[in-house]
Amino acid sequence: MNFLIKTFTFICFINFYLMAQVETRKPAELDIPNIYFDLLGFAPDSGSGSRLDVYIQIPYENIFFLKEGPTFTASYELTISLLDSNKKLIKEKLWNETVKTEFYEETISPKHYKISQQSFLLPSGKYFIRVQIRDNQTKKSISATKSIELRNYNDSKFSASDMMILNKLTYEGEKKIISPNISGNVVDLPGGFYVFLEVYNYLSADTLQLDYEIFKDERKVIRSGTSIHPLQTTKNAIFFKVNSNELPIGEYILNVILSPKNFSNSTDENFRFKYSLAKPFSIHWRGMPTSIVDLDAAIDQMIYIEDAAELKRIKSLPLNEKVAAFKELWKKKDPTPNTERNELMEEYYSRVEYANKNFKHYIDGWKTDMGMVFIIFGSPNNVDRHPFDIDSKPYEVWYYYQLNRQFVFVDESGFGDYKLVTPIWDIWQRTR
Q1: How confident is the model at residue 144, as a pLDDT?
Q2: Where are the beta strands (DSSP E) in 344-404?
Q3: What whole-number distance in Å separates Cα of residue 284 and Cα of residue 267?
Q4: ∠ Cα 53 137 132 (to 5°)
Q5: φ, ψ for residue 26 (rounded to 5)?
Q6: Ordered structural domains, the chain, with CATH
Q7: What is the tens place of the pLDDT at every residue in 10-28?
Q8: Rounded-to-integer distance, Cα 50 and Cα 53, Å
Q9: 406: nearest Cα among 431, 364, 372, 377
Q10: Nearest Cα to Cα of residue 42 among 190, 157, 200
Q11: In the structure, what pLDDT confidence band is assigned to residue 299 with cuts at 50, 70 and 90?
């Protein structure tokens, strides 16, 4: 398969610069900084409404460092814009951040980052939060928006803040030191992860029962746990550990049910209350495209650039060996093996994702003929569509000028199931 891999690599990087006229899936620009941010609502120290905490994490690998003597320095501008439920701007904060390090390896590392945090006192209600980062060296920027529903904590005798996933929980004497996990990816925490929240207890309950469940597909519980915590009146800092050992890659929901217990006040003896919270988290290997949420599917999707028998062998391995074999397979194809990123893998699976979104029919988009051609060759330079010709069945012609090739797809059934009628197997035959 060496020739095919080289062919795919050539087309992959040519498409970083060629803009197709149609079927375009523009690859991400590698020098634009990435944004991870999290929104958390807490009860304010006084008054009504909520305190909104905005946490922003900027990995060093996503900002541009200049060498200044023995030090590498990066600077960027951050903007937080608060919009109400009608998406009308109501508040905005803008400031600059500077990062310095003496070690070049840290400037290209996804494991080193800076976290910035801002707080806002707001009435309860729904808000949209837009965060923008602008690199002061490259002048490039990127923004992202999330929404949050802020509660009025004065409305209930028992409530809780939003949950914060932690990278680390340490102690200095009796004081707890927390390191927040902003991205939601817990892949580097194989022993499980801690979660922090505040519980607001204006009942006479002195005990909290905390039950958690982890969901993935179809709301099926795949992991659960229970812990008991002492409660004081008013505000309580609660920490609990989630067992995420050996969970496969993918997207998950952590659901928590809080139940107050042991009421010292007899008037509250019959009080029955449950408070529910939910928090998404993920398990994605570093350098792995986030579109990969099923390892077996990701292995199957390599069929266009890898031998079928080898893929079948890898799928039959135990999970740990399967993970290692998959990573090794892509490591051999990495055009930049000295970095943690594998640009070829990112490009390949972004094409798979595009194919699944745009060419799905009775089967997944990556399995269709159009999906196959798109994954191998990328965006065509031009597409000639003929959906309503009187004297022929619907057909399309995809042109790839840099390859001097064209591919014809015909909808034999009339239901949008386009089949490739142009020979493509010659590319494979050259490699066998």
Answers
A1: 92
A2: 382-386, 395-400
A3: 49
A4: 25
A5: -75, 125
A6: 2-29+287-429 (no CATH), 31-149 (2.60.40.3880), 156-284 (2.70.50.60)
A7: 445 444 333 334 555 555 4
A8: 10
A9: 377
A10: 200
A11: very high
